[in-house]
Amino acid sequence: MSRKIVVAGNWKMNKTAAEAEALVKELVGLVSDVCPCKAEIVVCPPFTAIAAAVKAAKGSNIKVGAQNVHWEASGAYTGEISVSMLKELGVEYVITGHSERRQYFGETDHTVHLRTAAALAGGFKVMMCIGETLEERESNRTAEVLDRQLEGGLGGFTAADMENIILAYEPVWAIGTGKTATPEMAEETHRHIRGKVRAMFGDEVAGKIRIQYGGSMKPGNAAELLACPDIDGGLIGGTALKADSFAELVKNAVSGSGC
Length: 259
Ligand code: PEP
Fold this sequence. Notes:
259 residues, alpha/beta, eight-stranded parallel barrel, 8 strands, globular, binds phosphoenolpyruvate
């Protein structure tokens, strides 16, 4: 089954509004020849830079996402952001469950589920992140950890909900470290994830769901990773912070996807 690739930049806590505007303006020119029929291109700035990014991306093939969302509609949740606040800004995608949220901010499979459910109800596409730590991989617990994250994050969703979910497999040991999973290792794990989705939701959902790889993806390794049958895009950290390197990665990813 052919799946449209989705390449998203997660800017984390980087870029002011002015810097975001400049980056997106430059990116618009660099990726204007990438057909939206081949790839979805998404940038996920920090909350304060979303409005500037949306404005700069207007009329282009670049979409804007947020890095988090809260499950309640409003209330006493200091430091959080709601679905309606993001919708008003023109956000179309939301990242949930990034390993940095799990590691530093107490995110659990349950809160990832709540955030993902709220984002779906709000009409966003969700990039839900999963991934094992080095210690978990070295003790042969990768499959067990991913299964737990998938069951906790996705349990109770319907096939219709799954249409708007993208999974991002990000081995924690590969994030920001320069260590990338080999294409063979990544493909084996993506195949496992698709199999788990099949067990939970059936063949059709498993065939359609897009699974991004994330973890030190670069222009130089994007094509070989995207050539793997179960890798349908990338979630990109460091390389997404410069328009030229992100654009090069997007183009190499599209060439590798066999579109
Ligand atoms: C990320 O944090 O989602 C990520 C993949 O980062 P990097 O590309 O820098 O490894």
